[in-house]
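Please predict the structure of the following assembly.
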Amino acid sequence: MRDHPARTENVGPVRNGRDINVDLIAVVAAVVDREPCVLTVGPRSTLPSGPFELSHRSLQSGLRDWVEQQTSHPLGYIEQLYTFADRDRMEVGRDQRNISISYLALTRQEAMADSPRSHWKSWYEYFPWEDHRSGTPEALNVFGPHLIAWAKEGSDPTARRDRRKRAAVAFGLDDRPWNEELTLQRYELLYEAALVEEVGGRPRTALAASISGKAMVADHRRILATGIARLRSKIKYRPVVFELMRATFTLLQLQQTVEALAGRLINKPNFRRLVEQQELVEETGGTSLDTGGRPAKLYRFRHAVLDERAFAGTKLPLARS
Amino acid sequence: MRDHPARTENVGPVRNGRDINVDLIAVVAAVVDREPCVLTVGPRSTLPSGPFELSHRSLQSGLRDWVEQQTSHPLGYIEQLYTFADRDRMEVGRDQRNISISYLALTRQEAMADSPRSHWKSWYEYFPWEDHRSGTPEALNVFGPHLIAWAKEGSDPTARRDRRKRAAVAFGLDDRPWNEELTLQRYELLYEAALVEEVGGRPRTALAASISGKAMVADHRRILATGIARLRSKIKYRPVVFELMRATFTLLQLQQTVEALAGRLINKPNFRRLVEQQELVEETGGTSLDTGGRPAKLYRFRHAVLDERAFAGTKLPLARS
DNA sequence: TCAAAAGTGTTATCCTTACACCCATGT
DNA sequence: ACATGGGTGTAAGGATAACACTTTTGA
């Protein structure tokens, strides 16, 4: 972020800033042994977070400070996810609002020492229905009927149709294809249908934890869902996977990392072609022997591609090239 | 936004919310007569904005309130753009931080009455170099040498190469293709190179307004650039253009709206095919006569597609379909 | 009759998808 | 020998891009 001229104009009436609390909150992701993980703190599942303060140089540096302080873990790649205010700040009579600015951070295996207060947890502990690498998860078979029943409880015919459609699109009902990017929409539907529950929230339909997943504090699971969705869509048009890889890696390791994030299996030959023809990687010359089979060539990320290309594709039929 | 359990845990030390001001700020866009426009208030170019207050039900409704109050203009489609804090709040000795939550809003021609305090201004008054519909803008010929000179002023060889590369990618130098989505990157480079200037900011290299565009208050031009970039990329994968169209329209009107937003011309036959094969529209049966030529069929948006499809495409070679 | 815009068709090319198959190493 | 993963080839289908051409109106 660069410096910018000061804001001298205030268009509306005189502001009143006090009573508004601003929190910074991080979804820190890494992939260990084919399992996508998120960094949590404390005994209950809580994302690292803390208030934005006057002493912070910027939002991002404030976030780095809090995460480092709570987890002893330095952050690499960071991007903003979403900012939201929650009205349920019922700390009894307090006239106070909470604003949360959430971030997605990516980090490498190498730096992943478990500190006493922080833990790496698999995404799929919280979202068992999101992992399709070994076939359709059992959770989806359970949710299907519940969601259809929930749709029928809608207040009027329009609302019922709407619920049914949303469920079908998000969960791939009625022979629709599964879309791994709809993680947030799925979570929100399950939340509305009371099929998941959170720490400090209202109770849900009784379901096994292996079906509805582990709860998190407050709305942290929703923020995690936002982060997963963002990452799943982003890996398709920007080379962010490499933020999660070691300096050198085999193509299978790269593929398995993407598979872990997407929660789906990828066709090997086509994946390799895709990676190589886009010139995202280059051979190091070395090979890896601990593969269980034929030794694999080692590759490294070609950082140069970040300069060469813009990574924002056209989908419009432009005129006269 | 749904209700969510209250935040009961505070991980960090006790927060201190006062002294932090939260502003809501809107880029309200519409297309009039093939010209993409933004809603401004006051004599100097200012985006509608105001502080988030305890009385607001949510961030979005707070934004709606402010925009409506300042411009008498109701908002339709809204999406969040970005949240940032600026450190340059040097109101002499004040220990206060400003946080701005910016939004992109789309609105229709129909609702576009000019109120006394608000005005519709073409994007391209602020970004003359972004409109490529009638060929390469003169501004780019002027910027080229300036940017190359600026790159040479870098502190060390790495910085110089980096500046040169960024300029080449963003502005399509060295025979690179023009990418209309890089509006924000281009603005940031021009700002760093002191080729644009803002109200209340440091002076720039002396350039005609037809080259460097009109200034805006504080960092509003940067926010506008963010909105333009977001919209230019979003029209490619979600049917948001229709938020800017009247209820019925001809295919040429639709094409010209997209062209206005993208700042580029589109191939007509291919555009029509694209729209029709994706089943985004349906014929109304009527025709428009005021086209200057043969009467054109009128179309309307097929709202049903929003339910049918997910609009999040795969780019990964998935295994065993 | 001409200009202006509406609208249709055709082709070459590239990218994606699906699948089949061979190679090198450890046990 | 065979299991395991590494690695290559190819052909079908669909989307995209480029361009040529016909149709219908008003002036």
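Confidence is low (pLDDT under 50) at residues 1-17, 89-93 of chain A. Chain A touches chain B through 102 residues (CB under 8 Å).
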